[in-house]
Design a protein that fits this description.
Elements (H helix, E strand, L loop, with lengths): L26 H17 L17 E4 L8 E5 L2 E8 L11 H15 L6 E6 L5 H16 L11 H22 L5 H10 E5 L7 H11 L6 H17 L3 E3 H8 L23 H5 L5 E10 L2 E9 L10 E3 L2 E3 L5 E8 L2 H10 L1 H4 L4 E4 L11 H15 L20 E5 L7 E4 L10 E5 L3 H5 L8 H8 L4 H8 L4 E6 L11 E7 L4 E3 L1 E2 L2 E2 L4 H20 L4 E4 L5 E3 H6 L4 E11 L2 H7 L9 E6 L11 E5 L5 H10 L7 E6 L2 H13 L3 E8 L5 E9 H7 L10
Parallel strand pairs: 3-4, 4-5, 8-12, 11-15, 16-28, 25-27
Antiparallel strand pairs: 1-2, 1-6, 2-3, 7-8, 7-11, 9-10, 10-11, 13-14, 13-15, 17-18, 17-23, 19-20, 21-22, 21-23, 24-25, 24-26, 27-28
Helix pairs in contact: 1-6, 1-7, 2-4, 3-4, 3-5, 3-18, 6-7, 6-14
Length: 705
């Protein structure tokens, strides 16, 4: 940041994604990244985002390093206060003076000193924290909220009992120190019920940072990564001075770097779901027709002119159909284009200047005694268009082809043609017809900065990436950069059985059988059978000297040697058994909403089909990195046709996509990077799980997704 509050552009080679070089992975940086995420939320009015993983959050005020007992960050909104204690990494401990003990001390102090209904105590940590905190304690606090009688009435494993006993003992110790009396059991339960354990992947390149960049990019008038870095730097200064930031204050300080709605010649700077407001639509130009026509008369190649749109009775003075404009006196001209204002036509001419430089172009503007836009018929028509626009579910869906729009300058048009239903909305420039009446266009930094992402569904991607791509988070943590992904063609998530499979782990904790990051639910019989099969695999693997293990952070499961080779710290499984499924188990041990999705792929602009190169379709985890992949592929000699970009937004879509491509004999590779000779040097190719199992001679107990 500069002294005047401006954004300082880092020198070449510097990172704008963190606030302090060596402090990138420190707890301080983690806290400031959380603050920057919250400020992104506030700045973009993105109330629909599941900000911290447990529901929508509306933030009116953000406080830094407060005098409250829980003092890292405090969010204040209509629903109450949300106190955040940020710990990049933390482990369970029975020692009241440990990091874990200090967090509970702050929770207890807040509860005793300033107990208000609706308060929430958040331990925000990362995927580096211990499973006892991220998983077990999360389950226990979820159970406390769901069970009014307390989590002790739910069946607990020995490991869970140990976590609960240690947590309750530390809470009791701190309560005694603060209140001077023993803590009532009901208060222990209330404190646990107020606690939230949130695991946030906000590291550089993590899912939440990517989501923040997309969110900022949809609004920013500067590069989104630059604004993200500025928000991190801003949070550092706010924390240093222990300041409070209101939504209005943030807008005053940083609002100039994000766009605001504009109504100049019908253009837009706002790229948001509320693009079409009635006030904005009804205020545009509806009384004048500005046209560019071809060969209107001898000696003239093109004519630019304008006419009043409505007569005194409110009837249209000109008609448009089949690429022509028909005047009241019966003349019929071939139409090149049609605009609401001369400013819109000028923008078109600027882009196509070469096409008209050597032509005979006549400009014949009309001189009206008054403003045609003030005609009663024009005002009424504007209200009608605003009403049409208010019914649009997705403003960034092309009104002609239905695909997503992500191109800078994409026109907003009024469809007003003989025999064609009236409509208003955005269209691709390539879809615009000569009879479409252009009202304005999108002006968005994210579309300019990522011009290769044509027709890309930014809004859908931003929604899907929250709680998505869980598989790739685990892969990024491992050292595995080139590997197959086993995809289950027979994946079944329809079961709502009331049983699941619990796996005891050598460190005393428990895991639960998951598929695609979600706890698998069975009938009692199927759960018992699954546990029996898993126990057989556990015994065989142990006898073979390569026990089945979980990574210590729970992100992977498989043979000890396999996990070790991927850079994980494996902990052997000891036993599987069938247990009752509870909502607390599901909430705490289901890691994601989407295991694979979202993923992006290239589409042939001419055919509309996914682009296949030498029998392979490439999927990308981060579409904003498309340019780097294109450069790599070009060096390997790959030539691509003109393309647009599409997205797979759900795991169900991913299943259909993979199944279809495999039936066609097409391979799928995710994040492929190639050598100059076209050999795959990094990336993940998709294999059919069932076929792998049929051809495998060993590894019967290993888990795959």
């Amino acid at each position: 940041m500069t002294d005047d509050g401006g954004i300082h552009v880092p020198k070449r080679g510097a990172s704008v994604g963190n606030s302090g070089g060596a402090a990138t992975h420190s707890g301080i940086d983690f806290q400031q990244r959380i603050a920057a995420l919250i400020m992104s939320h506030m700045l973009c009015d993105a109330s629909e985002l599941d900000l911290l993983g447990f529901g929508d959050v509306q933030v009116d005020e953000l406080r830094f390093e407060t005098a409250d007992d829980i003092d890292d960050l405090v969010l204040v909104g209509p629903a109450g206060r949300l106190f955040i204690q940020a710990k990049n990494t933390i482990s369970l401990s029975a020692d009241p003076t440990s990091d874990f003990g200090s967090v509970l001390a702050q929770f207890v102090g807040q509860y005793v000193g300033d107990n208000r209904p609706g308060d929430v105590y958040v331990l925000a940590t990362s995927i580096e924290a211990s499973a006892n905190v991220r998983k077990v304690l999360r389950k226990l606090t979820e159970a406390a909220r769901l069970n009014g009688a307390g989590s002790k009435t739910s069946p607990l494993t020995n490991g869970e009992k140990d976590v609960l006993q240690k947590t309750e003992a530390v809470i009791s110790s701190h309560y005694q120190a603060v209140a001077g009396t023993p803590i009532p059991p009901a208060d222990i339960h209330r404190i646990l019920a107020r606690m939230r354990i949130c695991s946030l992947d906000i590291r550089e390149g993590g899912a939440l940072e990517s989501a923040a960049l997309l969110m900022l990019g949809s609004k920013a008038v500067v590069p989104p990564r630059l604004l993200w870095g500025a928000l991190i730097a801003f949070s550092v200064s706010l924390a240093r001075d222990r300041l409070t930031l209101s939504a209005a204050g943030l807008r005053e300080r940083m609002g100039r770097y994000v766009s605001k709605p504009s109504n100049v010649d019908g253009t837009y700077d706002e790229v948001a779901s509320e693009l079409f407001t009635k006030d904005l639509l009804s205020g545009l130009s509806y009384g004048r027709e500005v046209v560019l026509v071809r060969d209107p008369f001898e000696g003239c190649d093109f004519l630019i002119t304008d006419v009043r749109r409505f007569d005194d009775t409110g009837a249209r003075r000109v008609k448009f159909s089949e690429g022509h404009v028909e005047l009241a006196q019966g003349e019929r001209w071939e139409l090149v284009g049609r605009w609401a204002t001369y400013a819109g036509l000028e923008r078109y001419m600027d882009r196509h200047l070469d096409e008209y430089q050597e032509t005979r172009l006549v400009v014949a503007p009309s001189n009206f005694a008054d403003d045609p836009n003030g005609d009663l018929a024009a005002l009424a028509h504007g209200a009608q268009c605003a009403s049409l626009a208010s019914g649009i579910e997705d403003p960034f869906s092309c009104r002609h082809c239905g695909d997503s729009i992500s191109e800078d300058g994409a026109p907003m048009v009024e469809v007003d043609e003989e025999g064609v239903p009236a409509d208003v909305g955005l269209v691709h420039e390539s879809c615009r017809t000569s009879t479409d009446r252009v009202l304005g266009g999108i002006d968005a930094a994210i579309f300019r900065d990522n011009g290769l992402l044509r027709n890309f569904d930014y809004k859908g991607w931003l929604t899907a990436v929250q709680g998505g791509q869980w598989l790739f988070g685990g892969l990024l943590k491992s050292s595995l950069k080139l590997a197959p992904i086993a995809w289950k063609s027979e994946y079944d998530d329809f079961s709502q059985g009331t049983w699941c499979v619990e796996l005891a782990v050598e460190d005393g904790t428990a895991r639960y059988g998951t598929d695609r990051g979600r706890v698998s639910r069975f009938s009692a019989r199927d759960a018992a059978h699954t546990a029996e099969v898993m126990n057989g695999g556990i015994s065989q693997a142990r006898e073979a000297g390569d026990p089945l293990c979980y990574a210590i952070d729970g992100s992977a499961y498989g043979p000890y040697s396999h996990l070790l080779s991927q850079g994980h710290d494996p902990v052997p499984c000891t036993e599987a058994k069938a247990v009752r499924y509870t909502r607390a188990i599901g909430d705490a041990y289901s890691d994601c909403k989407r295991y694979y999705a979202p993923l992006a792929y290239l589409v042939d602009a001419e055919t509309g089909d996914p682009i296949v190169v030498e029998g392979v379709i490439s999927l990308l985890q981060n579409p904003l990195e498309l340019d780097a992949y294109l450069q790599n592929w070009a060096r390997a000699g790959i030539e691509l046709p003109d393309f647009t970009m599409s997205a797979i937004l759900t795991d169900e879509q991913f299943d259909r996509f993979v199944r279809l491509m495999m039936t066609r004999g097409i391979r799928i590779v995710i994040n492929p990077k190639l050598t100059l000779h076209g050999e795959l040097v990094s990336g993940y190719w998709v294999e059919n799980f069932e076929q792998l199992m049929r051809s495998a001679s060993q590894g019967a107990g290993a888990g795959c997704s």
